[in-house]
Amino acid sequence: MRVRRIRTAALLAVTATLASGLLASPASATPLPCPVTDAMISAANYWVVNGTELAANTWQNGSFYTGNLAVVLATGQSNHRTLPWADANGYAILSDPSHPFAPDTQAVGEAYLDLHVYFHPEPENLVPLRNNVLAEIGTGKTTYWGQAEAINRSMPSFARLGVLDSDNTILASMQKLFHYTEKVDGGGLFNETVGLWRHDSGSFTFSSQANGEAFAGLAKVLAALPSTDPRRVEYLRVFRKMAGTIRLTQRPDGFWNTDLLNPLDSPGPESAGTSLLTYGLAWGVSAGVLDARTYEPAATKAWQALTSKALLPSGFLGYVQNPAARPFSPPAKATDTAAYGVGGFLQAGRWIAALTPACQAP
User: Where does the record locate the signal sequence feature (predicted)?
Assistant: First the structure.
C-alpha cells in the first residue's frame, strides 16, 4: 500500500505558495477521510503557532521541519513554514568550532534534502550541506559519530547526497563512520546481545530516544540506498535485529519506556522515542523488509497510544522527554513537549498512513 500522494497539479500549487501562515484544505476540496493525517495536521499546525524558537536551524527544528514536510507528502496540505525557515537560514549548517561536524548541526540536512527533492530542486540550496559533508570527509577522521543519535541526524544526509551525486566517496565514508560507531567506539555502541544501542561510550543504558533515532535513521538510509549497494546488507541486519528487540520491549499500553530495559527508570509513557520507533517499524513493514504480521500490530498499537494519550484535541503533543535528559531524569509529563518530539510524531505518521486503508488514494 502507498501513502496518499499529491497529484502533479496539486503539488505545483502547494509548492508555488510556500510562504508564511496556516493552510487549510481549499473550501471546494473534499476532506481526506484519514484519522492519521488529521492527527498529523493538528500537531503540525499547533506547533507552528505555539512552538518555541522556530527560526533557528538547530537539530530540534531539523526534526520538526522534516516532519512538517512529511505532512505535505502524506496529505498535500501545507502550513507554509518550512521553505521560509530554510530560506531565512540560507540552507546553512551551523558552525561549532569546539565540535566540528557535530551530528546535531547536520540534522537540518534532511529537511533541506526533502525540500530539494520533492518541492524546490534548486541546486544551490544543497551547496552548504554538501560542502559540510565533503569537508568532514576531507579530515579523514571516522570518530565524529560518537552518539547513536548520529545515525538519524547525520547518516541519512550522507546516504542521500551520495546517491543524488553518484558519489561513492560519500557512501564509503559514511560506512567508515558507521562502523566506528557500531563496532569501535567504547567497544561499539551497538550491543549485539540485546540488539540495542547505547547512547554513547559512557552510557550503559538503552534509551528509547537513542534507539529511536538509530532505528529511524537506519530506515532512512535503507530507503535511500539502491538494493544493489553492498553496504546495505549490514544496515539491514542491524535494523532487523533491533526490530526484534523493539517489539518485545513495547509496553502493554503501546508506548516504550524511556529506558527500554528498565521500566522502573523514569517510568511512564514517552512520546519522542515511541514516535521514532514507530517510524522504523511502520517504514519497515511498508517497505517489505519487516514481516507485516509480526510488526504491523506493534506499529499501529504505538500510534494509537500516541494519538489517544499524548496528543490532545488541540494538537499539543505531550510526554516528550527533555531532549537534554538521559534515562536518569524525571519521567516525562503530559505537559512536556519539544520540537524534536513533534517532528518524530509527524514523521511516524507518514508511514502509519501508508499502512492505513482509510488513508489510501481512491
Answer: 1-29
| Burial per residue of 137-167, b for 16 or more beta-carbon CB atoms within 10 angstroms, e otherwise | beeeebebbbbbbbbbbbbbbbbbbbeeeeb
Three-state secondary structure of 91-114: CCCCCCCCCCCCHHHHCCHHHHHH
Whole-angstrom CA distances from 113 to 110, 132, 134, 156, 313 are 5, 14, 16, 10, 31
- Which class does domain 8-359 fall in? mainly alpha
DSSP sequence for 10-66: HHHHHHHT--SS--PPPTTSPPP--HHHHHHHHHHHHHHHH-S-TTS--HHHHHHHH
Q: What is the pLDDT along the chain (362 residues), one digit of tens a residue?
A: 333 333 333 333 343 333 333 444 333 345 557 999 999 999 999 999 999 999 999 999 999 999 999 999 999 999 999 999 999 999 999 988 888 999 999 999 999 999 999 999 999 999 999 999 999 999 999 999 999 999 999 999 999 999 999 999 999 999 999 999 999 999 999 999 999 999 999 999 999 999 999 999 999 999 999 999 999 999 999 999 999 999 999 999 999 999 999 998 889 999 999 999 999 999 999 999 999 999 999 999 999 999 999 999 999 999 999 887 666 678 999 999 999 999 999 999 999 999 999 898 66
What ranges in the chain are assigned the alpha helix state H?
A: 8-16, 35-50, 59-75, 82-88, 103-106, 109-114, 127-139, 150-153, 155-164, 168-179, 208-224, 232-248, 271-287, 292-305, 339-354
